[in-house]
Amino acid sequence: MQTNQLKKVTAAGLLVTLGIIFGDIGTSPLYVFSSIIGNRPITKELVYGGISCVFWTLTLQTTFKYILLTLQADNRGEGGIFSLYALVWRYRHWLYFPAILGAATLLADGIITPPISVASAIEGLNGVHGLENIIVPGNALTIGIVIGIITLLFFFQQFGTKVVGSAFGPIMFLWFSMIMFWGIIQIFHFPNILAAFNPYYAIELLVKYPNGFWLLGAVFLCTTGAEALYSDLGHCGKKNIQVSWIFVKVALVANYFGQAAWLLHSGKTTLGGLNPFYEIMPHWFLIPAIVIATLATIIASQALISGSFTLISEAVSMNFWPRITIKYPTDVRGQIYIPSINWILYAGCVGMMLYFKDSNSMVVAYGFSITVAMIMTTTLMFYYMKFVKKWSPLIIALILVIFISVESSFFVANVVKLAKRWQFLIFEISLVFTMYVWFKARKISNRFLHFENFMQHFDTLKKLSFDTSIPKYATHLVYLTKANNKKNIESRIIDSILKKRPKRADVYWFVHINRTDEPYTMEYTVDEMVPDKIIRVDFNLGFRVQPRVHLFFRKVLEETMDYYDVKGGARYGCSNTKEISTDIRYVIIEKFLSVENEFSSREGFILRSYFAIKELAQSDKKAFGLDMSDTEIENIPMVIAPATSVKLQRTELSQVPMHY
């Protein structure tokens, strides 16, 4: 099914949306209510207040903020924090930082979503007769099963999800139908639980219940998938998400209220290690429920992994992340595979499982980073509402008061988790550091790019091209240029062509890649600056398009030949059979940090870190999709802050001792 068809509100589109969008938030009933109750005595005040908090959190954060408001901030149909940043970056120069912090924290908390979801499902086997002493939360067998499932999940990422992806929608429809059905059954047994829709119970819990405010850290888990929901906007479209959310929210609310009804109807005084999600079901249905829950958690994890790939791909395109290998395992638009990120996430997930051992321990450490990501989205949304949508200041102020009040409360309640999750800070700080250094270093180096008037070199390049005394370097010589203005060219490119060993070519091509704010733009223009001799090609590529320069350039040559925009016959590799010449030589100019620089401490640290990270990153040759044999790398020293004074003293020759 084509992407544009999925964005229409159809039964098929809604079914696919269930499989792609709502996996994370949809599996939260597995652990949210057991986390709220914990080891506390089961009381009406706690249960009514907890379920009321869950309902109003889903209403304010997920429904109001994301489904109704944030989904409006679509960038040509695409969502996510970098898509939002692409819409507002021009209004304030510092908005790169909330984009970086939001993306990094979203990725960091992603390493705990697969293990906590899968573990919550597998641990349900503990309630099956005969398995009580075998599948025990935290024992080696349970941990091994969870790690085995996670290993298979990450291993199959390299093959894409085109085949099994078609089953995601039906499975998630079955999942939501199941949790809604058993929840409604429990509500029939104790219909008085519906009184918890009244926000009074939520307020009473937070204000009067002992340490009730800190329960918000557990309540927040019900909305952790909302940020990922926005990131997946481009896969299904706004309308499909909004319509399918009606069914999803009804199912979630029914299940949460059903769990609350069981807690008050069962006569239990404490949970005692029981999970109310499984307790509301009859024992004969437990194994089918666990199978469906496991499949649902795998789908939820898959959605999170795919979203991480997309996020990093956007970061690479927008100069927030080093260039890395990106693969396309299927012909499905937007489906990518990033090996390095896949195995980093895998290592993180396994590490979390081995460290925390069971889902209850992981719940304690879950949620802090997502609150940070949500606050960063709110920050960017303020500038979107103010400058892009131009809404009334009164409406914007009202929206901000609601979101800031809710999210700051969740943030404070989750701060106490830092002691339980200090290991996450290492990963999060590493991500933020990498993105910040890469972004700022590119800004610093671009400040010292020297451009010249390109037109003043036209005659020299023409003479060089016809000078047969110099061996021909290539038929088509191609340089990548950062000059936005066609009249300019980098000094280093001119030096590369004319100085030392002049590079004679029949045609000089200068290729510029312009990243658009739209996700999937693929356009180009050709400008014959000197007919048949000096030609500039501008590629306009969306921030989700991988720049495969060699493939795109050959397409330009073919169409140039077909439409006769550029003349030159065989000089362009054209023959009567319309074959493209293979005599194309690309030159990439790479910089290294010169020892002659004298930086400020800040810039020196950023640039040295940048070049250290660059050693681990993919080369420009691979990143731009250039054939190995047709590309030459020229290394030049990067001198940003040259030494202005050298304290070197001359002495008389007679005073210098002679050594032989």
Task: List the topology elements.
Elements: H1 3-6, H2 11-20, H3 23-26, H4 32-37, H5 44-69, H6 81-88, H7 96-109, H8 113-122, H9 140-155, H10 168-189, H11 199-208, H12 216-219, H13 226-231, H14 233-236, H15 238-265, H16 276-279, H17 286-317, H18 339-356, H19 359-364, H20 368-388, H21 393-415, H22 422-447, E1 451-453, H23 458-466, E2 472-480, E3 488-490, H24 491-498, E4 504-516, E5 522-530, E6 534-542, H25 549-563, E7 584-593, H26 601-616, H27 620-623, E8 631-638
Parallel strand pairs: 2-4, 2-7, 4-6, 7-8
Antiparallel strand pairs: 1-3, 5-6
Can you tell me the CATH architecture of the largest domain? Answer: Up-down Bundle
* Structural class designation: alpha/beta
Count up the domains: 2
- The rough form would be described as elongated
The helix fraction, in percent, is 40-55%
Largest sheet: 6 strands, mixed
CATH homology superfamily of the largest domain: Amino acid/polyamine transporter I
Widest sheet, order of strands:
5-6-4-2-7-8
Question: What is the compact description of this entry?
Answer:
The protein is of the alpha/beta class and 660 residues long. It has helices at residues 3-6, 11-20, 23-26, 32-37, 44-69, 81-88, 96-109, 113-122, 140-155, 168-189, 199-208, 216-219, 226-231, 233-236, 238-265, 276-279, 286-317, 339-356, 359-364, 368-388, 393-415, 422-447, 458-466, 491-498, 549-563, 601-616, 620-623; strands at residues 451-453, 472-480, 488-490, 504-516, 522-530, 534-542, 584-593, 631-638.
